[in-house]
Amino acid sequence: MGVSYLIxxxxxxxxxxxxxxxxxxxxxxxxxxxxxxxxxAPGDPATILIGKQTGRFPTPEQVAQFRTEYGLxxxxxxxxxxxxxxxxxxxxxxxxxxxTSVASEVRVRFGNTLLLVTVTMLVAIxxxxxxxxxxxxxxxxxxxxxIHALSxxxxxxxxxWLAFLLILLFSIVLRWLPSHGIGSAKHLILPVICLGLAxxxxxxxxxxxxLVGVEGEKYVLSARAKGLTxxxxxxxxxxxxxxxxxxxxxFTLFSGAIAGTIIIENVFAWPGIxxxxxxxxxxxxxxxIQAMVALYAAVFIAGNILADIAYVIIxxxxxxx
Amino acid sequence: MITHKLWIKxxxxxxxxxxxxxxxxxAVSETKAPPTTVESTAPPAQPASTVPPSTEQVFTVAVARDxxxxxxxxxxxxxxxxxxxxxxxxxxxxxxxIGPGLAKSWDISPDGTTYTFHLRExxxxxxxxxxxxxxxxxxxxxxxxxxAWSSIPFWNIVVKExxxxxxxxxxxxxxxxxxxxxxxxxxxxxxxxxxxxxxxxASGEFTNPLGTGAWKVGEYVPQQRMVFVPYEKYWGxxxxxxxxxxxxxxxxxxxxxxxxxxxxNLIGGEYVGGIPLESIPVLKQNPxxxxxxxxxxxxxxxxxxxxxxxxxxxxxxxxxxxxxxRKIIAEKLFSGYATEAKGVFPPxxxxxxxxxxxxxxxxxxxxKELLAQAxxxxxxxxxxxxxxxxxxxxxxVDAEAYPQSKSMSEVIQAQLREVGIDxxxxxxxxxxxxxxxRSSNYGMSTWVTYGPPYDPxxxxxxxxxxxxxxxxxxxxIFGDPELDxxxxxxxxxxxxxxRQAAFNKVWEFMDLNAGCVPVVYSVRLxxxxxxAQNFKLGSTEYWLDxxxxxxxxx
Lengths: 321, 554
Fold this sequence. Notes:
The complex is a heterodimer of chains A (321) and B (554).
Chain A: H1 4-8, H2 10-40, H3 45-54, H4 60-69, H5 76-88, H6 102-137, H7 142-156, H8 159-173, H9 185-216, H10 218-225, H11 230-260, H12 262-267, H13 273-282, H14 286-314
Helix pairs in contact in A: 2-14, 6-7, 6-9, 6-11, 7-9, 8-9, 9-11, 11-14, 13-14
Chain B: H1 2-30, E1 58-63, H2 79-85, E2 90-92, E3 98-100, E4 103-108, E5 114-119, H3 133-144, H4 153-157, E6 164-167, E7 170-174, H5 182-186, E8 215-221, E9 225-230, E10 243-248, H6 252-260, E11 266-268, H7 280-285, E12 289-304, H8 314-323, H9 326-333, E13 339-340, H10 364-373, E14 377-378, E15 384-386, E16 389-390, E17 392-397, H11 404-418, E18 422-427, H12 430-438, E19 444-448, H13 457-463, H14 466-471, H15 481-491, H16 496-513, E20 517-529, E21 532-533, E22 550-551
Parallel strand pairs in B: 1-10, 17-18, 17-19
Antiparallel strand pairs in B: 2-3, 4-5, 5-7, 6-7, 8-9, 9-10, 11-20, 12-19, 12-20, 13-20, 14-15, 15-16, 21-22
């Protein structure tokens, strides 16, 4: 099986077509649900926004004016349709709160979050998988148990607690690293450690258990009894079998990380989408919330599709259907 | 053979992963939107702990939110940033009196309806445009024509067509009736501060923040920092610092970390970047920082739904006031940094007086007595009952707005239980809270008053206004037609003695009717890095006063 399989095969083409259609359906459903939920949630954007802006409740006239201006007085379906029409053209509206273009704000902030998450995942892969290999190779030795203990610790420590601890040590006491902000490699170090530690551990655990599991399979044991070296067993049987679960995990962690950085972004004043989203919800800032929900959905869907592509490349037994 | 193919697959997979991840951040930076983009590769702000060149004096302030586009006629930008670059005709002094600002003097007609301002000469905006009466009129016309500002009493009272500019340095306004707080309202950070007419484009849209203030805007990286530099042609005393940086840090703990690590020099202030009270011990212990406090301007109050039973009975409200131990709350919840309330506003609010401090003592027995008088008797479970119904109520708490609200509510819940009232706490966010109030669907709620320069007039005119209640029954802590009359009389007074006497009557009415239950007065809390000298609090929480700050060597 080669990579050319991907491009020429009709099955693959149908797969992508089906997947794309389903993705669109999912995005539509998700965005409609989110619009509806905000619509029925207590708290009227007009009251909140005018109230928070002027420091006091708006008069009924002010509320009516706001609602007309933003089309909030129309029925739910009409409003949703209007949003959708503009969204597919790339116009995500203007934030109710600040009036700035949602699309440009999201683009910039998403870029910052993506940077953080990507570096975190790379670090997790570079440290997590090799350490898992080590642990499996030296199974049941001190090294293996030590790595195991570290992994347990890494998963158990809450990321924000670790954040404060690291800030205390490296920013306040030693003054080696900045405590917040974005802008240089130094700014990435602490947030990446906080976000990455648990992910390193998860990849490590999965790699180790996968390899140990394969080594324990009867066919591997018989092959080894007949003279197959451990190294060859790993290469021929170990790696291929763990590739799919590891790829799944990587994409799952990546998608989850995009959504889960909000606490770390807050603590490190990292200008990403997490905090932006929470503020938008508080203010019932409809255009922003809609854009964010659609974005998160798209990220998860993209992650899934990429994972599927990866499976096809790795494992010839998998067919795309 | 199989090995070879496997390696190809793995390397292709890795390549795909790397390409996807490597391309993503780059693509984003290439499609940057114009001016308001974050420069993610921009150099970080100069931390104060590194030694700057000997001529640089940089003072960094941690702010909780992005400063905003700095249009003084909208409500998006933050107060301290607006007050750095914009000035008003008059200033609010530390003692609450009004002093000259862009107007060097003013006259008020004997009937209190005509105000004439004599403007300072030789003042220019940050781009060199001259400041004069035409610019002032342009500013007022601009926001007086916007109904979004109708919540400001001056907006309603001024005769909009009456603004005259008899010469370049004189502006007059006419009001439909005398209003004692006219000058006070002129000191607000928005909207009455003066923007340069050259700040707008051909269609009249705001494009550039240009004011007359001692500071003008330098660099601005949205969501990260805003840099202010001194305006060389400022008419007043020039600041000593060479740069002020507003650094955006939304998490309160992260602000404290940044102060302790030397990256920022100032944190605190309700509208800048608040400090959680629990962190005071940490700040106290650190030898590199000092805590600066001042008398607070606002009050934490408990308001009750006075239009319905059981709180429509003034005896019940008075009882609740007696049932609360304010001393414990001030000492324990606020680490001694708050003062017990003796009236609805703190002493820093002008014209405040305390005719009945005895009503604010902690006297649970008196509370029980009053409740009994109102017809409530304790049932077997200790909860009061009347006509078969229990005294149960709900207390709404918006913990986000004021973090202390939650712990305060819990204490109050316990204290009211002691006298037989069963209070359930309902934590809500601002959206749900405003909904509940609009539909009058609440029993009790926490509130915080605005503080100077908005009080006493905005508090009285908006939070305690009965006529507003009938228009839209929301956001009113307490109202009574008689209070409205007393308030209007006080607002129209034209001499100081009349005024104080009229306000005394207002406070007396509020005390005796227990319109709300004031609990404690807030504290103004800031922490400064010790490398900065001469830091003092602004005359109100709504602005900072940085003009005399200097940075010494560490």
